[in-house]
Write a structure and sequence with these properties.
Elements: E1 2-5, H1 11-22, H2 26-36, E2 42-47, E3 50-64, E4 67-79, H3 88-102, E5 107-110, H4 117-122, E6 127-138, H5 139-145, H6 159-166, E7 172-174, H7 177-189, E8 193-196, E9 200-207, E10 210-218, H8 223-233, E11 238-243, E12 256-265
Helix pairs in contact: 2-7, 5-8
């Protein structure tokens, strides 16, 4: 097994691995490579003369209070079916940590694809660090909490500004412009809608009588205005709203805290306890 960064000639193997593991179209993969990934940020495990496993390092920032850390998101980690359970991904994760240390990155973080993988990554030095509050509510309940009257919707092309405004004081990942662009492409491809107000923003999908807001982020006191805007955007009867753990949710609502992602400290200044219930938002899933 050889661990290394990707080369230009690996492109076809990387595309094939991605498509078989995640089922995305080649156009989606091409867009990701164009927007987000230089070869030095693609780490591969080669076996029998060919790339058999890969992961991608997307560098962003982690803001905790006034402290800003360098953080790299491990994305699209995959191993070819016939080579799984042979230690390739474990070796690749170790190589990612070594690479991050050389680059003075403070934290690695990732989103397990399912609940069972939390235990897998925990054995490899990651710990649960990102979570969200989830509110399940009926239309009638949301209407009772919504502010009636006018609201000002903004152009969502300024999403990164709105996101940072809405997340003031919340420990969270500050996503790079490239990641936000790629996420926007994914949203359009899958029919995901967005709202951007002075009070906050939401990214949501509506299907039949249900709506799910994968992000529902607002300034203090802004819940009712954002709820009003969401109600006017969809006729859904049932809503699931996902928001930061520290969101100022109206007291009449019961929420559930759900683990989302894990982090691994890399640098000397990065401590395991630094990241607790931080907000991730985008998962690019």
């Amino acid at each position: 097994m050889l661990l290394r960064t990707a080369k230009t000639e690996d492109k076809d193997a990387l595309y094939a691995l991605w498509e078989s593991a995640f089922g995305d179209t080649q156009e989606t993969v091409k867009t990701f490579f164009r927007l987000c990934c230089a070869p030095e940020n693609i780490l591969v495990a080669e076996a029998d003369g060919r790339v058999r496993a890969a992961l991608y390092l997307l560098e962003n920032k982690l803001q905790i209070g006034e402290n800003i850390y360098r953080a790299a998101y491990i994305y699209a980690a995959a191993t070819e079916q016939a080579y799984r359970k042979n230690g390739l991904m474990t070796a690749l994760l170790r190589y990612a940590a070594e690479t991050a240390a050389r680059r003075d990155i403070d934290f690695l973080f990732l989103t397990p694809a399912n609940a069972a993988l939390f235990a897998y990554y925990e054995k490899r030095g990651f710990r649960t660090a990102f979570a969200k509050r989830v509110l399940s509510v009926s239309r009638a309940q949301l209407q009772d909490a919504a502010e009636h009257g006018a609201y000002a919707e903004s152009d969502f092309c300024a999403e990164s500004v709105s996101r940072e405004t809405a997340l003031q004081g919340v420990p969270h990942i500050v996503w790079s412009d490239a990641v936000l662009q790629f996420d926007s492409v994914l949203r359009k491809a899958y029919g995901v809608q967005s709202l951007c107000l002075q009070e906050g923003f939401s990214i949501f999908e509506a299907e039949e009588d249900t709506a799910e807001a994968a992000e529902f982020c607002f300034l203090k006191g802004g819940f009712s205005v954002l709820a009003q805007a969401l109600l006017q955007k969809t006729e859904a009867l049932h809503f699931t709203l996902c928001m930061p753990c520290f969101a100022d949710v109206p007291p009449q609502f019961q929420t559930q805290t759900v683990a989302v992602a894990m982090a691994k400290p890399i640098s000397a200044r990065a401590k395991p306890e630094t990241v607790q219930n931080a907000y991730l938002g985008i998962t690019l899933g």
